[in-house]
Amino acid sequence: MRYRTLGKTGLNVAEVGIGTWQLMGDPGMWLEQNPSESQRALQKYIEVGGNFIDTAWVYGFDDNNPDRHPSEELIGDFVKSSKIRDQVILATKVAPKNWHWPAWKTDKIEDCFPSDHIVKQVEDSLRSLQVETIDLVQFHVWQDRWVEQDEWKETVQKLIQSGKVRYWGISINDYQPENCLDTLKAVDFISTIQFIFNIFHQKPREQLLPYAAEHNIGLIARVPLDEGGLTGKFTKSTNFVEGDLRKKYFAGDRLGELVDRTNALKELMGTTAETLTEFSLRYILSHSAVSTVIPGMRKEQYVVENTSVSDGQSLTSEMLAELENHSWERNFYSFGDPALSED
């Protein structure tokens, strides 16, 4: 495994981190998973040299058990039983109080992140992860105009000063890669940005990546495989079961267009990669501004396959230029404010 610096945190993180949304299932999003299988995936990730584990207060949340945080709890049990706390970097997220994903244009920061809510969720995460300090806490949604308010800034700084949180970041709204730049310009204690970035969604290259490189902001690339679409494993007859978010995400004509586009990518990649998954992850790691990419990996096989791309082999500049022609900017998520800007 190769490592990169997570911006001004100075932390050395594995180029391939592990996303954990799927590890314990998520009602209405991901089907229930096998905790033992998820534990084995975490163990394999550590064995191959991985050290960056990204989770969230809300991952696995169930209205029937509102005080439980399944993904964080699984990770906490694993880290404690394995006695590897000093070997891993743990990142989690504070969920918006009003449950808006992404943050609506009309939301005020007191609707999403009032101070007492921020503090409570950090305390919840500390208990679930069974640690005294969390390496990185991120706001799970964002609107850039919130930077004008001061209360959240004071709360974050107090949590950092208390030793409960080492560094703070933002996981920005889906497909809105510029919706954080004003905040980064005004607030020096925001160290990282987590954002969607993949072959289809290349807009982050326009402003976010150059800004982060110039100002030493750590970049965490999520949804690198477009909810599985960029694995190249789907066909026009693929049928997603109820309870799998992809049933809606790739509904109607979307699946057919996806398959046409991934077939074209397979033809383009030729012998550059053995699979479209490998090709897609190499695309992201070919951008030096990216600190780490976090595919969801709930099976040992996925861990081995995905982490193998951390070998220093980037795509050529000619290939990257050609891939610009394969951009497919769209937002297939069915939730959130329909008036949200796609900027």
From TrEMBL:
Checking InterPro entries in the record gives: AKR_Detox_Biosynth, NAD(P)_OxRdtase_dom_sf, NADP_OxRdtase_dom
**Residue ranges occupied by any NADP-dependent oxidoreductase domain in the UniProt entry:** 16-326
Q: Print the keywords alphabetically.
A: Oxidoreductase
Tell me, what's a Pfam family for it? Aldo_ket_red
Q: Does the keyword Transcription regulation apply?
A: no
GO CC annotation:
cytosol
GO MF term (any one): oxidoreductase activity
Q: Which PANTHER family match?
A: NAD(P)-LINKED OXIDOREDUCTASE SUPERFAMILY PROTEIN, NADH-SPECIFIC METHYLGLYOXAL REDUCTASE-RELATED
- This one is known as Aldo/keto reductase
The top of its lineage is: Bacteria, Katanobacteria
